[in-house]
Automatic annotation (TrEMBL):
Keywords: Acetylation, Annexin, Calcium, Calcium/phospholipid-binding, Cytoplasm, Phosphoprotein, Repeat. The gene is ANXA6. Belongs to the annexin family. This is Annexin. Its main location: cytoplasm. One of its GO terms (cellular component) is plasma membrane. GO terms for biological process: apoptotic signaling pathway; calcium ion transport; mitochondrial calcium ion homeostasis; negative regulation of sequestering of calcium ion; regulation of muscle contraction. GO terms for molecular function: calcium ion binding; calcium-dependent phospholipid binding; calcium-dependent protein binding; cholesterol binding; GTP binding; identical protein binding; ligand-gated monoatomic ion channel activity; phosphatidylserine binding. Signal peptide: none annotated. May associate with CD21. May regulate the release of Ca(2+) from intracellular stores.
């Protein structure tokens, strides 16, 4: 499959209607609204099947034929959300934006989210058309009205965006990129207080291509994405506006996919947001939004609208959506590039992994051992002291404390902790006191003992650990349980799932780079086993073995290339194809491997989110990840968590746990993003 040309194809879901006859449509609409009641089906069918240009011609024909204003008649005949949607479609895009902004700043209070969405996402040309439309429709100056309704740095950035003067030159100066990176760094991270003017000037005026390079260099220079600095340095509506600008610079369709998801997730639907986006993007980039939505949220936009709305309103939204990507089970050929680019980004990303727990300065194991003994001596237990010491020492330092405790008091610190604390706090604290490999070995043992097996825990650990970590786990398991990990897995699992786990448990993943020819062969094997290859070859048993070998033994850089070649070959993303074509524990194991290859911190962020969402908390998963990743990449996990779920890990933990367990988790979390 050739990679689709960027910017060459029309990406809207609504097209000019073939054989369009404006007089005929005007007559049909008049008939649909004549007499008692109205034929809403006929109205939505016509209006959602015509382009905006054609709708304007229908308006003119309607007035010529009947001397009446079509929009006024539609407002009279329709009600509620359906009316708002249909009337929005009838306005020219700039006038629709003008109406949304007028509503956002009229009356008591301001709809800042609406202002942010529109002004952060429109092009220079769209902005100029918006200003002119506002002036024409309301005989008022848009800039003056925004100044009158907003304040501070938020107001200043809105006014800058409103000028529509963002640079549009694709030629980027490397020197200016470096200068902007330095200016942003000095304006935020290196400054006492923040120089907001620098953020406003650079993010409000530089070209998109330039800013994308600035963001890349900023990450390399500072070790953190620009979004993290914005969250740390700015606040309130100004922070939200700047984050929206950054998202639109990176990918406007992804920004709108995220807005649509948030408009429909949870209880209730933000219908104004849903309508505004579906109307405004239907002739611009709805196909890209759909594609990203499906990739990011593992469900189609169509299916989410279908489950979240009803009646003619739902039918109209689904027409604007333009199709159900889940029904076809494949990507648009033109948009497979989105998934391809995600793997490309994964391949070039060189983000330094950082934990939240670091060795304590001025570490004194003698003092810590005495403090812990005092906290557990006598009547009652001083949990705060135990939490404070153990969560603020590295694992190596905790092992020194254990030795010192035994030397001083002739007692086993782990045994004393077990007798003094209980429940979730005990599992967390005792987990932190164990060497990492022994902790993982214990988690694997617990996953396999008793009636039933915790397959998710087995997958999480074995699919994400490095070769060195796997080898250490094998040694720890043998030492602690006098049995090999392979034997334990063999006796507790079966079939292909057992073979996958045993393969992962050998710790023999290749550690070199990619091999393009081999990657193409491996991608062909994947296409054949997932039953989407044009020319299947070989017997299925042999293919299954080869596919398992590829996923379990190839290096991460090589697998990223395999997954890119898979997309080029088939138009499918390997993760979604595995989910669709496979089932059970085998599917879950392969998906975990793919997600770990793509972005391991994001894999853990997703696991943490799922452990805390809905009714009840999965404390075991929460504890296991917080303990095992605290010195490896928990800081990266925090960043992925807030980026995907729009709330910090700290907030999620705070809202879902309590007591001393909460205190210990927050200490491990290491801060509020």
């Amino acid at each position: 499959m050739a990679k689709p040309a960027q910017g060459a194809k029309y990406r809207g879901s609504i097209h000019d209607f073939p054989g369009f006859e404006p007089n005929q449509d005007a007559e049909a609409l008049y008939t649909a609204m004549k007499g008692f009641g109205s034929d809403k089906e006929a109205i939505l069918d016509i209006i959602t099947s015509r382009s905006n240009r054609q709708r304007q011609e229908i308006c003119q024909s309607y007035k010529s034929l009947y001397g009446k204003d079509l929009i006024a008649d539609l407002k009279y005949e329709l009600t509620g959300k359906f009316e708002r949607l249909i009337v929005g479609l009838m306005r020219p895009p700039a006038y629709c934006d003008a109406k949304e902004i007028k509503d956002a700043i009229s009356g008591i209070g301001t709809d800042e989210k609406c202002l942010i969405e529109i002004l952060a996402s429109r092009t220079n040309e769209q902005m100029h058309q918006l200003v002119a439309a506002y002036k024409d429709a309301y005989e008022r100056d848009l800039e003056a009205d925004i100044i009158g309704d907003t304040s501070g740095h938020f107001q200043k950035m809105l006014v800058v965006l409103l000028q529509g003067t963002r640079e549009e030159d694709d030629v980027v100066s490397e020197d200016l990129v470096q200068q902007d990176v330095q200016d942003l760094y000095e304006a935020g991270e290196l400054k006492w207080g923040t120089d907001e003017a620098q953020f406003i000037y650079i993010l409000g005026n530089r070209s998109k291509q330039h800013l994308r390079l600035v963001f890349d260099e900023y990450l390399k220079t500072t070790g953190k994405p620009i979004e993290a600095s914005i969250r740390g340095e700015l606040s309130g509506d100004f922070e939200k506006l700047m984050l929206a600008v950054v998202k639109c610079i990176r990918s406007t369709p992804e920004y709108f996919a995220e807005r649509l998801f948030k408009a429909m997730k949870g209880l209730g639907t933000r219908d104004n947001t849903l309508i505004r986006i579906m109307v405004s993007r239907s002739e611009l980039d709805m196909l890209d939004i759909r594609e990203i939505f499906r990739t990011k949220y593992e469900k189609s936009l169509y299916s989410m609208i279908k489950n979240d709305t009803s009646g003619e309103y739902k039918k109209s939204l689904l027409k604007l959506c333009g199709g159900d990507d889940d029904a076809a089970g494949q990507f648009f050929p033109e948009a497979a590039q989105v998934a391809y680019q995600m793997w490309e980004l994964s391949a070039v990303a060189r983000v330094e992994l950082k934990g939240t727990v670091r060795p304590a300065n001025d570490f004194n194991p003698d003092a810590d051992a005495k403090a812990l003994r005092k906290a557990m001596k006598g009547l009652g237990t001083d949990e705060d002291t135990i939490i404070d010491i153990i969560t603020h020492r590295s694992n190596a330092q905790r092992q020194q404390i254990r030795q010192t405790f035994k030397s001083h008091f002739g007692r086993d610190l782990m045994s004393d902790l077990k007798s003094e604390i209980s429940g979730d706090l005990a599992r967390l604290i005792l987990g932190l006191m164990m060497p990492p490999a022994h902790y993982d070995a214990k988690q694997l043992k617990k996953a396999m003992e008793g009636a039933g097996t915790d397959e998710k825990a087995l997958i999480e650990i074995l699919a994400t650990r490095t070769n060195a970590e796997i080898r250490a786990i094998n040694e720890a398991y043998k030492e602690d349980y006098h049995k090999s990990l392979e034997d334990a897995l063999s006796s507790d699992t079966s079939g292909h799932f057992r073979r996958i786990l045993i393969s992962l448990a050998t710790g023999n993943r290749e550690e070199g780079g990619e091999n393009l020819d081999q990657a193409r062969e491996d991608a062909q094997v994947a296409a054949e086993i997932l039953e989407i290859a044009d020319t299947p070859s070989g017997d299925k048993t042999s293919l299954e073995t080869r596919f398992m070998t590829i996923l379990c033994t190839r290096s991460y850089p090589h697998l990223r290339r395999v997954f890119q070649e898979f997309i080029k070959m088939t138009n499918y993303d390997v993760e979604h194809t595995i989910k669709k074509e496979m089932s059970g524990d085998v599917r879950d194991a392969f998906v975990a491997i793919v997600q770990s290859v793509k972005n391991k911190p994001l894999f853990f962020a997703d696991k943490l989110y799922k452990s805390m969402k809905g009714a009840g908390t999965d404390e075991k998963t929460l504890t296991r990840i917080m303990v095992s990743r605290s010195e490896i990449d928990l800081l990266n996990i925090r960043r992925e968590f807030i980026e995907k779920y729009d709330k910090s890990l700290h907030q999620a933990i705070e809202g879902d746990t309590s007591g001393d367990f909460l205190k210990a988790l927050l200490a491990l979390c290491g801060g509020e993003d």
